[in-house]
C-alpha cells in the first residue's frame, strides 16, 4: 500500500530576492508519510533552501520568488502562514544554541505551547512527558549556558516534538556535536522515528554518520537541482558522492582501494555488516604501508608548557599540565566538549592567564607579554571568521596587523601581496569582505595572521560545517603552509579522519590534564581512551578489525594513497 | 551565575513565594507614592515597612553591599549638588527662613536641611523595595509579570531574551576583543589611552554584525514556534495568585491611599513643620 504524500514539490523554481540566479531549479520531489529521508549535497546546492521552503521560513522570513507548487500535508504552502506550517512541520535549525529562547530548559520546551495559549497544567504535563522521553528531566531548571551541545539539542527537539506535528525537519543536526554525541543524536532520531512513525527529513553532509542508522531514502542535490533519489545501498554502490564534493564513507574508500567491486557487496551501507565474496581476500592482498612519511623529525622545541594549572570560577580546568611542542609539528587537539581545548589554546595565545605554571616559547617566557606581543609569534584563528574580521576591504583586513605595528607602507604592500597570493585571494584583493564565501573568509583570516609571520598557528575547528570539497581545500592549504614554511600548527578538531590524515601528533585532553599524547593512529585504536574522551572509531578501523587487518596500517595506506592523488591534482 | 545579572537568589521565604506580578505592582505603586510625597512622617513609615520586608526576605548584606554603597555615594553626591546649586530652595518651599549659619550664598537654613532630609529619605525608601523585587523574583517570571500588568507580550518577552542572550553577547565580546588584540590593538595597560579607545571601537563592528545574524536566526526560531501568532500567550512560569499576593496588592493600595491622605492634611505634597 502506498502511503500518503506528506511533502510534494512540483517543478519548483525559487530565487532569493537578493540574488540574480535561482537557487532551486525545477525541483520535483515527493516524500511520503512515515519516510525517513536524508537530503545531501555540497554547500550551496540548495538543500537548506529546500528545508526553509518546507518549514515556511521562506517566503515568510526570507523573501523570494517561488514558481511551481509545494504541498505540505496536502495543503498548498501559499495559503499557509509560517504559524500554520509549524504545526505540520517541526523544524530544528542548524545551531541549537541560537534557537534556545527560554531562560531554562523547561521554559524552552514550553515556548511553542505558550504561544498557542496552552494552560499551565497541560504545559507542565507535556513538558514532563517529553523531557522524560528525551532523558532531560533532570535539567529542567538549568539555563542554556550550563548545557552540553547534545543536551541543548535534546531540549530543542523536545520543544518541537511537543507539537506532535507529522513532519520533523532537521537542518545539520550534527554540526555542533562531538563524535560521540553525534552518534547518540542519530540513534535518538532513529528511535523517535520508530516511536512516533512521523516523517523525518534530515539535511546533513556528514553522510557516513547518518547512515549508521536506517534511512529510507537519500536525496542528492547539486547546483539547485535534484540529482536523484536513492536507497542508501543504491547510492553507495554508484560511488558518485565524490563527484559532488561529498565524502564517501571511509570504509568504502578502503574497499575501493583494495579493488572490491561495490556491486558485489551486500549491506554496503553498514560497516558492521558489509561483506561480499572477495572482500576478505582483496583486503589481505592490499599492499599495506608500514609507516607514514609524515613523522616530524624535529627535536627542536618551539613551545614548552611547564606545570600549568588553570581554574575558571574556582572550577579547575587544568592541573599540573606539561607539554612540549616541536618545530614543524601538526598537532590535533581533541577531547570531549568542555574539556578545555579552547581554554588551552587561549592560554597559549595569552588570551587568558594561567593560575600557575609557565609557557615558554623559543626559550622565552611568555608570562609578561600582552596578547599583542604574543601575537607576533603565535597566531590564533577562531572558528567563526566573522568574529575576527573588522575591516570592510580585503586588503585593509590583511594590512591591519602590520599598520598597527607601524611597518612602512612599502613593506606593508609587499607583505600583503605575498599573503594574498599564498592564500589564493590575490584576484579578490580589491573586493569587499562581504563578497567572500565562508571558505574564502577563513583563508582571509589566515592571511591576515600570516602577514605577522607567526611561528605557531592555532586553529579552532578549521573545517567545522564545511563540505568535503571545502574541507579538502582548507586542509591541503594548511598542510602546504606546514611543509613549505615549516609553520607549526595546532588544530582543535572533532573530526577523527582529519586528525589521522593531517596531524603527526594527537593530544587528547581529559581529567584536567593530557590523557594521551601519541600518533593519531594509536589514539584511534585505544578503545578505552576513545570512550573516555567522547571520540569515535573511524569506520576504517572497524572494518580493519572485522577482517583482521592492522587498522593502523590500513589507515596509513589509505592516507598515503589519498595524498598521492591530492598531489597529482 | 547564569542569567543572574540581577542577582536572583533562590530561597523560600514568603516574599520569594509571592508572584512576580504582585511584587512588581507593589514596587511600582509604593515607589511612585514615595516619590510624590514629601511628608517625612509618611516616608519614614514606608521606609520602616520596606526594611522589615527586606529583613523578612533573608537577603544577606554581602549580596547587596556593593549596590547599596554605590547608591549611598550617589545619594550623598546628589544632596551636596542640590545644596551647591540652590541652598535657598528649602526656605523658598516652606516660606520661612530659620538660619543656622550665615555664609552668604551658602547660608544654611533649617528649611534646607529638612528639605534635604526628605530627599535623602526618598532615595533610601526605594532601595529596599527594588532590592527585594530584583533578588526575590525569578528572572523567568519577569516577562510574565510585565505582561500581566499590561505590557504587550512581545515587549515583555524582549526582557527574557535579553537575559537569555546577555551571557552569549558577553562571551562574543570577549572573544572578539581578544582577536582584535592579537591583531595589534594594544588594549592592555601597556597601550596608550587613545589606542585602547580605538581598539575597543573596532570590537563593535564584528560584534554588531554577529549579533544581527543571531537576531535573524532567533526570530526565525521563534516564528517557527508560533511566537506572534495570537494576541495573547500563556507563560509556563506564571503562577496563580495566592492569598498573600492579594494581600500584597491591597497593602500597596493602602499605602498609596495613606500617602494621598497625608497630602490632603498637609494641603499639598509638602509637610511643613515650620508654620
**Proportion of residues in β-strands of chain B:** under 5%
What CATH architecture of the largest domain in chain A would you give? 3-Layer(aba) Sandwich
Number of strand elements of chain A: 20
- As a percent range, the share of helical residues of chain A equals 25-40%
Family (chain A): Belongs to the ABC transporter superfamily.
Organism (chain A): Philodulcilactobacillus myokoensis
GO molecular function, one term (chain A): ATP hydrolysis activity
Protein name (chain A): ABC transporter ATP-binding protein
Describe the overall structure:
- The complex is a heterodimer of chains A (569) and B (275).
- Chain A is α/β, with parallel strands linked by helices.
- Chain A has three domains: 5-244, Rossmann fold; 249-286 and 541-569; 301-540, P-loop containing nucleotide triphosphate hydrolases (Rossmann fold, 3-Layer(aba) Sandwich).
- Chain A has a six-stranded mixed beta sheet with strand order 6-7-8-3-9-10, with helices on both faces. Chain A has a six-stranded mixed beta sheet with strand order 16-17-18-13-19-20, with helices on both faces. A four-stranded antiparallel beta sheet of chain A has the order 2-1-4-5, covered by helices on one side.
- In chain A, helix 21 (539-546) packs across helix 22.
- In chain B, 70% of the residues lie in helices and 2% in strands.
- Chain B is built from ten helices and two strands; from the N terminus they run αααααββααααα.
- Chain B has helices spanning 14-17, 20-36, 40-56, 61-85, 89-94, 110-136, 139-148, 153-183, 193-224, 243-266, and strands at residues 99-101, 108-109.
- Chain B has a two-stranded antiparallel sheet with strand order 1-2.
- In chain B, strand 1 and strand 2 (108-109) form a beta hairpin.
- In chain B, helix 2 packs antiparallel against helix 6, helix 2 packs parallel to helix 10 (243-266) and helix 4 runs antiparallel to helix 6 (110-136).
- The chains are: A alpha/beta (569), B mainly alpha (275).
- Chains A and B meet through helix 3, helix 4, helix 5, helix 13 and helix 14 of A and helix 8 and helix 9 of B.
Amino acid at each position: 500500500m502506498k502511503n500518503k504524500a506528506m511533502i510534494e514539490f512540483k517543478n519548483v523554481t525559487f530565487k532569493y530576492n537578493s540574488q540574480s540566479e535561482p537557487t532551486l531549479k525545477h525541483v520535483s520531489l515527493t516524500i511520503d508519510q512515515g519516510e525517513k529521508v536524508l537530503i545531501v549535497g555540497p554547500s550551496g546546492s540548495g538543500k537548506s533552501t529546500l528545508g526553509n521552503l518546507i518549514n515556511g521560513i521562506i517566503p515568510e522570513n526570507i523573501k523570494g520568488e517561488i514558481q511551481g507548487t509545494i504541498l505540505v500535508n496536502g495543503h498548498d504552502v501559499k495559503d499557509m502562514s509560517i504559524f500554520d506550517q509549524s504545526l505540520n512541520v517541526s523544524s530544528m535549525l542548524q545551531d541549537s544554541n541560537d534557537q534556545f529562547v527560554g531562560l531554562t530548559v523547561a521554559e524552552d520546551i514550553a515556548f511553542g505551547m505558550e504561544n498557542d495559549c496552552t494552560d499551565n497544567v497541560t504545559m507542565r504535563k507535556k513538558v514532563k512527558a517529553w523531557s522524560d522521553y528525551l532523558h532531560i528531566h533532570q535539567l529542567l531548571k538549568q539555563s542554556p549556558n550550563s548545557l552540553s551541545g547534545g543536551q541543548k539539542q535534546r531540549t530543542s527537539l523536545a520543544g518541537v516534538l511537543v507539537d506532535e506535528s507529522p513532519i520533523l525537519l532537521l537542518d545539520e543536526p550534527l554540526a555542533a556535536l562531538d563524535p560521540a554525541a553525534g552518534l547518540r543524536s542519530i540513534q535518538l532520531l532513529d528511535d523517535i522515528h520508530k516511536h512516533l512513525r512521523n516523517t523525518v527529513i534530515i539535511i546533513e553532509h556528514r553522510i557516513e554518520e547518518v547512515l549508521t542508522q536506517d534511512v529510507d531514502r537519500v536525496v542528492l542535490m547539486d547546483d539547485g537541482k535534484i540529482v536523484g533519489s536513492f536507497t542508501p545501498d543504491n547510492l553507495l554502490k554508484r560511488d558518485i558522492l565524490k563527484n559532488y564534493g561529498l565524502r564517501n564513507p571511509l570504509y568504502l574508500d578502503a574497499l575501493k582501494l583494495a579493488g572490491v567491486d561495490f556491486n558485489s557487496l551486500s549491506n554496503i551501507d553498514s560497516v558492521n555488516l558489509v561483506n561480499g565474496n572477495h572482500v576478505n581476500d582483496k583486503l589481505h592482498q592490499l599492499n599495506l604501508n608500514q609507516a607514514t612519511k609524515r613523522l616530524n623529525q624535529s627535536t627542536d622545541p618551539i613551545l614548552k608548557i611547564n606545570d600549568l594549572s588553570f581554574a575558571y570560577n574556582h572550577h579547575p580546568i587544568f592541573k599540573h599540565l606539561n607539554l612540549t611542542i616541536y618545530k614543524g609539528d601538526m598537532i590535533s587537539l581533541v577531547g570531549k566538549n568542555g574539556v578545555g581545548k579552547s581554554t588551552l589554546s587561549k592560554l597559549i595565545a595569552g588570551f587568558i592567564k594561567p593560575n600557575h605554571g609557565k609557557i615558554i616559547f623559543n626559550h622565552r617566557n611568555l608570562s609578561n607579554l600582552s596578547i599583542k606581543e604574543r601575537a607576533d609569534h603565535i597566531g590564533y584563528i577562531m572558528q567563526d571568521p566573522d568574529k575576527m574580521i573588522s575591516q570592510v576591504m580585503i586588503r585593509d583586513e590583511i594590512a591591519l596587523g602590520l599598520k598597527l605595528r607601524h611597518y612602512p607602507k612599502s613593506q606593508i604592500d609587499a607583505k600583503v601581496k605575498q599573503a594574498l597570493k599564498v592564500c589564493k585571494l590575490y584576484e579578490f584583493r580589491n573586493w569587499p569582505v562581504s563578497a567572500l564565501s565562508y571558505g574564502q573568509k577563513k583563508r582571509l583570516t589566515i592571511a591576515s595572521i600570516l602577514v605577522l609571520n607567526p611561528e605557531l598557528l592555532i586553529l579552532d575547528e578549521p573545517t567545522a560545517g564545511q563540505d568535503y570539497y571545502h574541507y579538502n581545500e582548507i586542509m591541503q592549504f594548511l598542510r602546504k603552509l606546514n611543509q613549505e614554511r615549516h609553520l607549526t600548527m595546532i588544530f582543535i578538531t572533532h573530526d577523527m579522519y582529519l586528525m589521522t590524515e593531517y596531524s603527526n601528533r594527537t593530544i587528547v585532553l581529559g581529567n584536567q590534564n593530557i590523557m594521551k599524547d601519541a600518533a593519531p593512529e594509536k589514539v584511534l585504536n585505544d578503545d578505552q581512551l576513545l570512550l573516555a574522551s567522547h571520540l569515535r572509531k573511524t569506520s576504517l578501523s572497524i572494518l580493519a578489525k572485522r577482517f583482521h587487518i592492522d587498522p593502523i596500517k590500513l589507515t596509513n595506506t589509505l592516507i598515503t594513497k589519498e595524498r598521492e592523488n591530492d598531489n597529482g591534482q | 551565575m547564569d542569567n543572574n545579572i540581577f542577582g536572583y537568589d533562590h530561597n523560600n521565604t514568603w516574599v520569594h513565594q509571592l508572584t512576580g506580578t504582585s511584587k512588581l505592582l507593589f514596587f511600582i505603586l509604593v515607589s511612585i507614592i514615595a516619590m510624590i510625597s514629601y511628608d517625612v512622617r509618611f516616608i519614614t513609615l514606608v521606609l520602616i515597612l520596606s526594611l522589615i520586608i527586606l529583613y523578612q526576605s533573608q537577603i544577606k548584606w554581602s549580596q547587596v553591599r556593593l549596590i547599596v554603597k554605590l547608591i549611598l555615594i550617589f545619594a550623598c553626591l546628589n544632596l551636596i549638588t542640590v545644596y551647591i546649586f540652590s541652598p535657598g530652595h528649602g526656605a523658598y518651599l516652606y516660606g520661612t527662613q530659620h538660619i543656622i549659619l550665615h555664609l552668604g550664598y551658602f547660608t544654611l537654613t533649617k528649611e534646607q536641611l529638612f528639605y534635604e532630609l526628605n530627599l535623602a529619605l526618598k532615595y533610601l525608601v526605594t532601595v529596599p523595595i527594588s532590592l527585594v523585587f530584583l533578588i526575590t523574583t525569578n528572572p523567568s517570571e519577569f516577562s510574565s509579570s510585565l505582561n500581566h500588568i499590561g505590557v504587550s507580550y512581545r515587549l515583555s518577552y524582549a526582557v527574557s531574551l535579553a537575559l537569555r542572550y546577555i551571557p552569549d553577547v558577553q562571551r562574543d565580546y570577549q572573544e572578539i576583543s581578544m582577536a582584535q588584540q592579537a591583531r595589534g590593538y594594544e588594549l592592555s595597560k601597556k597601550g596608550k589611552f587613545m589606542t585602547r579607545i580605538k581598539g575597543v571601537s573596532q570590537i563593535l563592528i564584528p560584534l554588531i554584525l554577529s549579533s544581527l545574524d543571531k537576531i535573524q536566526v532567533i526570530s526565525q526560531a521563534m516564528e517557527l514556534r508560533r511566537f506572534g501568532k495570537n494576541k495573547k500567550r500563556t507563560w509556563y512560569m506564571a503562577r496563580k495568585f495566592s492569598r498573600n499576593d492579594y494581600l500584597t496588592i491591597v497593602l500597596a493600595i493602602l499605602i498609596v491611599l495613606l500617602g494621598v491622605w497625608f497630602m490632603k492634611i498637609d494641603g499639598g505634597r509638602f509637610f511643613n513643620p515650620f508654620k
